[in-house]
Amino acid sequence: QVQLVESGGGLVQAGGSLRLSCAASRSPISCDAMGWYRQAPGKQRELVASMARSGSTNYADSVTGRFTISRDNAKNTLYLQMNSLKPEDTAVYYCHCVVLGHDRWGQGTQVTVSS
Questions:
Q1: Would you say residue 51 has pLDDT above 90?
Q2: Residue 55 phi, psi dihedral angles, 5° rounding
Q3: pLDDT tens digit sequence for 62-94
Q4: Spatial CB neighbours of 104, under 8 Å, sequence gap ≥ 6
Q5: In degrees, to the nearest 5, what angle opens at C-alpha 110 toward C-alphas 80 and 88?
Q6: Which residues, 6+ apart, have CB-to-CB distance to 51 below 8 Å?
Q7: For strand 109-114 and strand 102-105, is the pairing parallel, antiparallel, or unpaired?
Q8: I need a surface site. Which of 49, 51, 54, 97 has the fewest CB within 10 A?
Q9: Average pLDDT over the chain, rounded to an integer
Q10: Cα(first)–Cα(last) distance of the chain, in Å?
């Protein structure tokens, strides 16, 4: 089973940037799809961005044009570049991998955007 460890979260001012990393115990292409989800206090976990094994990507409307998902198969790492951050992006961000319908999650990394 793949293990996922996120890093790169922190406190940033509105308009700033952060890059999240997800180190996987296996190549990202061992997952049918990998992605980033987030959960803000009192809200449900929501999809931010995903990448299929083929490399096709999908983004939530709220982050389209600001966030970019990418992967480095040689480093077994998934990234999320977040630009033009807004206070409403504040949440715990989770890395996700799905294989044959089985979900794996990282422990999450906190992103806080101050106004």
A1: yes
A2: 105, -5
A3: 999 999 999 999 999 999 999 999 999 999 999
A4: 1, 2, 3, 4, 31, 96, 97, 98
A5: 80
A6: 28, 33, 34, 35, 57, 58, 69, 70, 71, 78
A7: unpaired
A8: 54
A9: 96
A10: 40
